[in-house]
Write a structure and sequence with these properties.
CATH class of the largest domain: Mainly Alpha
Shape: elongated
CATH topology of the largest domain: Hypothetical protein af1432
Helix content: 40-55%
Distance between the termini: 67 Å
Number of helices: 10
Length: about 375
């Protein structure tokens, strides 16, 4: 800085050049940031995934509301004041969220809404995202792939594989006609191929129901080879295809968190599936009553135990085989998903899984 003849201060050419360069780099950095955080729908900060968040991370990103609860402060000095506890998520996992200042909640927060969250990650019994501000994102502007996982296997390939097995395995003419009614219902097939098999426990992604059903059918084929004299192959394969068909109407595949429908909450997929199969059978003249009874028994007993949701326990060879095939597919997928989630961590043991009731040892 220099002083002129009148005593006024001014910047010399060199310093002006330095200031210009600083402004240039700031603007260049801003432009680079915008380019890397802009989508076709307008300005949208790049997605920060739950799995990448760490203590101290500043967050400005979208998360879906998995659960929420309004709680009162326990301190006498804050009597009558409330805070909001949330569970936020995306395809990579979930994180606890907290809104200490309830006055910022201008509209009620609802499960399955996507929020654009501004906050900081802190440590409190695990990672916790302290929310300083948020806004609700319109569903039409949300990138669903950030919140709805999709089956890693090719859907068309799985569907072709299922049809191939059925074409050789089901020889009973009545069951063949029943399956053809299913195949010819385009809306039903679309739902079957799109739906998740569960909300959170196993095969909980788009296409999960098809993948789970194919696994169950393939396991049943192995059991048939072990017990060819005891098992009615046509009956077992048909029941394997229909055992979870009620999940098409139990879960809302359009929901980011695969929320249960009202029908799903009130009836459950076993009752819904039984109703769906009965409706198809009614359109087939002279469908044998004993075959209908055996198929219905397998649908209502496939959970294996009454305390697990089945109205009856399996009481035929085929029903017992279906129960174990279903359970094996579900349990192995649970373990597989748990191990994949644990990959890259230093411990050989996974975290405790409350559904499996154990940790899993992953060392090779």
């Amino acid at each position: 800085m220099f002083e002129d003849e009148k005593g006024a201060f001014y910047y010399g050419p060199f310093f002006l050049h330095v200031i210009k360069m600083q402004v240039f780099f700031v603007l260049a950095g801003f432009i680079h940031f915008i380019k890397n955080h802009t989508s076709k729908g307008g300005l949208c900060l790049g997605k920060q995934f739950v799995k990448d968040l760490k203590v101290g991370s500043h967050v400005f990103s979208q998360f879906v509301v998995v659960a929420h609860k309004t709680l009162s402060f326990s301190a006498p000095s804050r009597q009558g004041e409330y805070f909001i506890k949330l569970l936020l998520g995306d395809v990579s996992g979930t994180i606890k969220g907290i809104i200490w200042n309830s006055s910022m909640v201008r509209m009620p927060i609802r499960t399955d809404e996507v929020l654009l969250v501004n906050g900081e990650v802190e440590e409190y019994n695990g990672l916790q995202l302290v929310i300083n501000d948020y806004s609700i994102v319109e569903k039409e502007k949300v990138n669903r792939s950030h919140f709805q996982a999709t089956c890693p296997r090719d859907n068309d390939e799985m569907w072709r594989g299922l049809l191939e097995i059925v074409s050789s395995a089901v020889s009973n003419e009545h069951l063949t006609r029943l399956l053809n009614i299913f195949y010819n219902d385009q809306d039903l097939v679309k739902g079957f191929r799109l739906s998740p098999a569960a909300k959170s426990i196993h095969h909980n992604y788009l296409g999960g129901l098809l993948e789970h059903t194919l696994e169950v059918v393939e396991i049943c084929e192995h059991l048939i080879k072990l017990y060819p004299e005891e098992i009615d192959r046509s009956l077992l394969i048909t029941a394997a295809i229909f055992h979870d068909i009620g999940k098409i109407e139990e879960y809302n595949a359009d929901s980011f968190t695969f929320e249960q429908t009202d029908k799903g909450k009130l009836l459950g997929h076993i009752t819904i599936g039984l109703e769906m199969v009965r409706k198809m059978i009614e359109s087939i003249p002279s469908f044998p009553d004993d075959l209908k009874m055996k198929l219905e028994h397998m649908i209502i007993s496939h959970h294996g135990e009454k305390e697990w949701g089945s109205p009856e326990v399996p009481q035929t060879f085929e029903a017992f085989a279906l129960f174990h095939a279903d359970l094996l597919s579900a349990r192995l997928k649970q373990i597989s998903q748990l191990v994949k989630k644990h990959n890259g961590k230093p411990s050989a043991w996974t975290e405790w899984d409350r559904f499996l009731g154990r940790r899993v040892f992953t060392a090779k």
